[in-house]
Amino acid sequence: MADDPLQTPLQFLTGVGPRKAADLEKAGLRTVEDLLVRFPRRFEDRSRFQPIASLRAGGTAAILGEILSCGVAPTRRQGFSLFTALVQDESGQVKAVWPNQKFLKDVLKPKMKVVLFGRTEYWGSRGLQLTAPEFEVLQDDGESEPLHTGRIVPIYERTGSVTPNMHRTLVHRALETLTAPLPDIVPAAMAARHGWPDRRTAFRQAHFPDPGTAVEALNVCATPAQRRIIFEDFFVYQTGLALRRRQNAAVQKPHVIAIDDALRDRVRQVLPFRLTAGQREAVREIVTDMQRRWPMQRLLQGDVGSGKTVVAFLAAMVAMENGYQVAVMAPTELLAEQHLRTFQRWLFGTRFRVELLVGRKGDAARRRLCESIAAGEVSLVVGTHALVQDAVTFRALALAIVDEQHRFGVVQRGLLADKGLHPDVLLMTATPIPRTLALTACGDMDVSVMRDRPPGRQPVRTIVRPETRRDEVYGLMRAAVAAGRQVYVVYPLIEESEKSDLKAATTMAAHLADTVFPDLRVELLHGRLKGDEKDAVMRRFVAGEVQVLVSTTVIEVGVDVPNATVMVVEHAERFGLAQLHQLRGRIGRGSEASTCVLLYAAPWSEESRARLTALADSEDGFALAETDLQIRGPGDVFGTRQSGLPWLRAGDMVRDADLLALAHDEARALVDGDAVPPALAAHVGRVWQQQFGLVTVG
Ligand code: ADP
Ligand code: MG
User: Fold this and answer.
1) Helix ranges (DSSP H) in 512-620
2) Ligand 2 centroid distance, CA of 403 (Å)
3) Ramachandran angles phi, psi of 55, nearest 5°
């Protein structure tokens, strides 16, 4: 690919010296391609400037004129300055005013030709003015003018010493280096089908649009040229995922799963309840995958309380009935223990042995257990995620179930395969992932979604209150307890300040126990408690001996106590939307009405307000996930780059969700049809190498 003109380093462009090259590189712009996929911040129609004489107050205007005079004007207010320029075109004159930008006296000079873009205001005795407009000085060299005016002009972000104006010139030069058609990474037929121009044309029009292109469309990246480039951004990554998926399908798994009526009967006998339609469909999809000759890679999405455990259990039954072993991994020991109890209950009276694998490596009991697992005496092993990392050997592992794992990115998933294991993999997440994120982080997987819930659930009422109305909340807690119900009080535990937060939770538990509810049993649960202490506290809560459980977020996943009907979340403003939704899923599990109180410490940010309000308004985890994505953006929702999210250059997962979905479908069709063009394959290889280092594709 050495002769790919898009890979030309920017320093080879005229006008880019070492200093500029360094500034550009710092902003992530190293090659011609980098420069061309970085869209302008917005476009401005400079094909028609407004005549100054026609300006009216209360709008935005773009004018082109010459500076007659300018300078810092004195003001009466201390520490406040105004830089003023009087600008003239053929029709008239207008004043432009910049508050507190004294440095402009070194930038703007009389006789300069400038483009101003900004708000027009009527300002008392000063008359009509442009207030703090964006400006651009036009060089009077004849060459630059057609680039910077008289057309729809791209306005770029300033990067270090590279001004928006220089940036524009650079992009123009970069485009001029593209003398021949570019190798197609989107097959021409596909581009034609969607009405997109060829690649070189797309780059040109995405920066220097043809006359008459709608500026409104340009500013929301909706023109065919822009959409093609955005699509490419997603498409390259999705092709990589599709290739990985095919690679996986080429693996012959060592085990064979077969199903007959006798097996179906035996499974039906242990079935604890009638499945919902969503559960039935998910089981069907999973079991179909399990019978294929290549390993399953499936993500099961279902809101909190949608009943994923039983689905996992049925898949496990199928594997065990076929004579194989199953590993179930949970994020916390608490949850692993709960799964153990659940599976033990459901498997009672069958020949299958379930064991919990936790604890330190060296210890004797654990060593013995590992021996039984290696000998195949244990059918189902429950543990934390460390199970994958540790050198636990199975005699015949056919199914790995990973619970509550929404941060299990593309890269980490390779782990099992890297160990030479090819079990069927079922990932389960109760944090509904917006579709776009699911397609991105898990685009090489198949996804089952359960949207319904087991019958008999009561909706949870959610209220948002400032801390100052704590007494009202205590009243609510007391009323619930008087009616025989139980209450959670949840404290955030943020890593950096873990100690002080733990102290806050401890202090609160003591305060509630001694002062507010001296007649009730209040206990504290947190992650620092030893396993058996935690277990003891939970057991007392499950048994109803404890009425108020003060807890850190260890109860976020897991815990199933239908009698608990009130949850009070302290410092709710510190939690993410998904996490709050998860927490709230702990109540509303029985037949009684439940209430979730979100307490916040004032002042709260606009974002916190949006988050807590969204939560009070909706109980639909999928809808909330979309809201979360819009409030916070994909990076924050999904964690960092390690989560397996690609860097996007032109694309935006929220704005361009439709293109992402399209890229997913097109990439799969292309890969499955064995029609990946060589230029695309090479490009995908290079991008994956850059983004994920060691990961190999195709
Ligand atoms: P999650 O999807 O959050 O892991 P669980 O699997 O813990 O949900 O299920 C939540 C609760 O609903 C459990 O108490 C479970 O026993 C119960 N449950 C699940 N499926 C059904 C069903 N089909 N009918 C009745 N109760 C169910
Ligand atoms: Mg669960």
Assistant:
1) 531-542, 577-584, 606-617
2) 7
3) -65, 140
Nearest CA to ligand 1 atom 10: 305
Tell me the one-letter amino acid at 522: V
Tell me how far the alpha carbon of residue 589 lies from the centroid of ligand 1, in angstroms.
9
**Pocket (CB within 6 angstroms of ligand 1):** 273-276, 279, 302, 304-310, 430, 454, 560
CA 614 to chain centre: 17
Length of the chain as a residue count: 698
Question: How far apart, in whole angstroms, are the C-alpha atoms of residue 429 and residue 406?
Answer: 6
Counting ligands in written order, the one closest to the CA of 402 is: 2
Q: Token digits for 368?
A: 């013995």
Q: Under a CB-based contact definition with an 8 Å cutoff, are residues 460 and 587 in contact? A: yes
What six digits make up the tokens of 400? 């790995």
Tens of pLDDT, residue by residue over 384-438, are 866 766 668 889 999 999 887 655 444 455 556 555 678 899 988 876 677 777 7
Q: What contacts 39, CB < 8 A, 6 or more positions away? A: 206, 207, 221, 226, 229, 650
Distance (angstroms) between ligand 1 centre and the Cα of 270 equals 15
Those residues whose C-beta lies under 8 Å from the C-beta of residue 586, and which sit 6 or more positions away, are 304, 488, 555, 559, 560, 561, 564, 567
Measured by CA distance, the residue closest to atom 22 of ligand 1 is 454
Q: Which atom of ligand 1 is nearest to the CA of 302?
A: 2
Q: What is the CA radius of gyration of the chain?
A: 31
Segments in 107-249 forming alpha helices (H): 145-148, 164-177, 188-194, 199-207, 215-219, 224-249
Phi, psi of 326 (to 5 degrees): -130, 140
Q: Which long-range contacts (CB under 8 A, 24 or more apart) does 616-622 make?
A: 616/462, 616/463, 616/464, 619/459, 619/460, 619/462, 619/584, 620/303, 621/303, 621/304, 621/430, 621/431, 621/432, 621/578, 621/581, 622/303, 622/432, 622/434, 622/451
Main-chain dihedrals φ then ψ at residue 485, nearest 5 degrees: -95, 175
Strands 82-88 and 59-73, how do they pair? antiparallel
> Quick check: 669 and 655 in contact, CB under 8 A?
no
Specify burial of residue 389 (Cβ count, 10 A radius: 0-12, 13-18, 19+).
exposed
Query: Pick from 308, 270, 261, 253: which is nearest to 286 by CA?
Result: 308
Under DSSP, the state recorded for 47 is S
Q: Where are the alpha helices (DSSP H) in 291-427?
A: 308-321, 333-347, 364-375, 386-389, 410-418
Largest CA distance in the chain: 95
CA of 450 to the centre of ligand 2 (A): 13
Mind listing the pLDDT tens digit for each residue in 286-329?
999 999 999 998 989 888 888 999 999 999 999 999 999 999 98
Domains of the chain with bracketed CATH: 48-150 (2.40.50.140), 221-456+647-698 (3.40.50.300), 460-618 (3.40.50.300)
What distance in Å separates the CA atoms of residue 365 and residue 240, rounded to the nearest whole number?
44
**Separation of CA 272 and ligand 2 centre (Å):** 16
pLDDT value of position 5 = 86
Probe target for ligand 1 pocket from 268, 310, 402, 457, with the most ligand atoms within 8 Å of CB: 310
| β pairing state of 424-429 and 152-155 | unpaired
Mind listing the pLDDT tens digit for each residue in 55-80? 999 888 889 999 999 999 877 888 88
Predicted confidence (pLDDT) per residue in 429-473, tens digit: 876 677 777 777 677 788 898 988 888 777 899 999 999 999 999
Whether the CB-CB separation of 492 and 553 falls below 8 Å is answered with yes
Number of the ligand closest to the Cα of 588: 1
Q: How far is the CA of 428 from the centre of ligand 2 (A)?
A: 8
Residue with CA closest to ligand 1 atom 13: 307
CB 174 within 8 A of CB 35: yes
Query: How far does the centroid of ligand 2 lie from the alpha carbon of residue 531, in Å?
Result: 19
Closest atom of ligand 1 to CA, residue 562: 14
